[in-house]
Each structure stands twice: as structure tokens, then as C-alpha cells.
From TrEMBL:
Keywords from the named record: Acyltransferase, Transferase
Organism, scientific name: Oceanobacillus longus
GO molecular function: acyltransferase activity
A Pfam family reported for this protein in Swiss-Prot or TrEMBL: Acetyltransf_3
Name assigned to this protein: GNAT family N-acetyltransferase
Stored PROSITE patterns: GNAT
Length: 239
């Protein structure tokens, strides 16, 4: 079995994902297409692989080559004029915040992500993956902190026309604030990016979030199934 690293150039069908490799300590890749040739290339390469396929695609070869299902991602889309503007609230956005507090929220808020659902990835590695992703977004200045009633209530991450993450501090959950929070964030992103249409990705395993975005005027445009594969084993070690 070949051993490759994230610094290698892209092979015919395997694109290195160094942002994942740093968390899982094995080479990681995403397939550039779904084909027998691409799947075959994973047979002789050590590492963790991700492939995204149309839900109606024949999945027989995925099983044959050792891939397993981890998640489905729905794509809610909203045009600016379709947004159901939330009522006035006390939510305030800020680009100045305590970085550690934001990272602490990130580590416990995304426990239902696809890497947590991957039985080959320990939870602490999945936690680290999301924490590092949020840290990257902080470095790119793509995080807005949400303050409510004078307290840090969560954060919002975006890039261009994509809503990447919306996380609420656990003490603010279950209080009927989710729609106001999400609506305020979407409205703010329309304002600061200038895009006429925004989109996001949500797993159907998170119906509460999906329902919130639909209630704001988002419509489901499509979906994609996500499969993983591990060739070799993850390196056990400290967290």
C-alpha cells in the first residue's frame, strides 16, 4: 500500500485535504469524481477518504471498494427578497471576542457532524477537527460573535454566499431564540457580502436547524450523500 502525504500533488482522482490530515494524523483525501477508476485509486493508498455522490446514483461500487455511508447534506437556498425578516431583537454582532470562548462553543456544538458519525474516528479527533476549522475561520476574519442581553450567545461563520456555521452557546438553547438568531445572521450576511442569494448545507439528522431555515424562507435545492473510507488505521495518541 502506498503511503502519501497531504503535501503531495493531487493524483488523478485523489485530492489531499491537509485541513483534515492535521486532525486525524493519517493522509486524507477527497475524491474528485465518483467513478470506478477513482474508487480503484483508493485501494492502493493509505489514508481516510471522502466521496460525495448524488443520492440516486448506483451505490454498489461504493460497498465493493469499502466505502460506508456517513451523512446526507441538504442544500437550503434563499434569495434576498424571499427572506422572512425576523422581528427586532437584542442580538448584536461583533468581530471582537474572546477566541477561546468561541472555540469552546465550537467544540461542543457540532457533535452531530459527519466526522462524529464516522465509527472509525474517535470523538476527540472529530471535536478537534471542528475546533481547528473554526480557528481557521477566525484567522480569516469570517466569524461574527453573537451577543444577546450583554452575553456571548454564539457565533456565525460565513464565506462568500455560503452560510458555514451557526452555533449557539448551550445556555441559550431551548429558549425559542433559534429563529431570531439564524434570521439575524442571514440578514447580516446579505448586508455585508452583497450577494442576492445565500446557501447552506444541513444534515437531515438535524431537523431543528433545517426547520429554522425553512421558516426563514429558504427552499431545498438538492442533496448529496457523503461516504467515507479508511485504509489502514488512525494513529492513537494524546488528544
Amino acid at each position: 500500500m502506498k503511503q502519501m502525504n497531504g503535501a503531495d500533488t493531487m493524483t488523478n482522482y485523489l485530492e489531499p485535504t491537509p485541513w483534515d490530515q492535521r486532525n486525524f494524523r493519517v493522509p486524507t483525501y477527497q475524491l474528485t469524481e465518483y467513478s470506478v477508476e477513482a474508487l480503484q485509486e483508493t485501494q492502493d493508498t493509505e489514508g481516510h477518504f471522502t466521496v460525495k455522490v448524488d443520492p440516486f446514483t448506483d451505490k454498489e461500487n461504493l460497498k465493493k471498494f469499502g466505502f460506508y455511508y456517513v451523512d446526507t447534506l441538504m442544500e437550503p437556498v434563499c434569495k434576498k427578497e424571499q427572506l422572512l425578516v425576523p422581528k427586532e431583537s437584542e442580538i448584536r454582532f461583533a468581530r471582537e471576542y474572546d477566541k477561546k470562548e468561541i472555540l469552546d462553543i465550537a467544540e461542543e456544538a457540532f457533535a452531530g457532524g459527519r466526522f462524529h458519525r464516522d465509527f472509525n474516528i474517535p470523538d476527540y479527533m472529530a471535536d478537534k477537527r471542528y475546533r481547528n476549522w473554526v480557528n481557521d475561520l477566525i484567522q480569516k476574519n469570517l466569524i461574527l460573535a453573537l451577543y444577546f442581553d450583554g452575553s456571548l450567545a454564539g457565533f456565525f461563520a460565513y464565506e462568500n454566499d455560503h452560510i458555514l456555521l451557526l452555533a449557539m452557546h448551550k445556555k441559550f438553547r431551548g429558549k425559542g431564540l433559534a429563529k431570531d438568531f439564524a434570521g439575524s445572521c442571514v440578514q447580516e450576511q446579505f448586508k455585508i457580502t452583497g450577494y442576492d442569494t445565500l446557501r447552506t448545507s444541513i444534515s437531515p439528522s438535524n431537523p431543528a436547524s433545517l426547520n429554522v431555515f425553512i421558516s426563514l424562507g429558504f427552499r431545498l435545492k438538492g442533496s448529496i450523500d457523503v461516504y467515507h473510507k479508511l485504509n489502514g488505521s488512525l494513529q492513537a495518541g494524546g488528544e
